[in-house]
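Troubleshooting log. The previous structure file for this entry was overwritten by mistake, so regenerating from the original sequence record. Sequence copied from the archived sheet and checked twice against the printout by T.R.
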Amino acid sequence: MSVYVIASILAMAAVTLFCRAAPFLFFMKSRPPPVVDFLQIYIPPMIMTVLVLGSYKAISFAKAPYGLPEIVSGLAVASLHLWKRNTLLSILGGTALYMILIRVM
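Regenerated output below.
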């Protein structure tokens, strides 16, 4: 392996380690500032919203199957999650349904 490849891997590992250790290093002795609590509550739903909307932007409603597999699968994910409150079940169920629908339609 090239020295540059090894150096790149080590640099990425160091940055990743720092990013994961930073909260523990900075907030060991004191309570985090209120902005951290705010971000902890609101960032995950915002990220999920961006991911969902981004995945739906490529749907073509002009030709068959008119986005039906994506919409039905998205509704199935939401329904499964509201019913069972199990993220893994929701994701696996919606993905399986989507795979079946794109093969059938």
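The chain is about 80% helix and 0% strand. Archived copy saved in two places this time.
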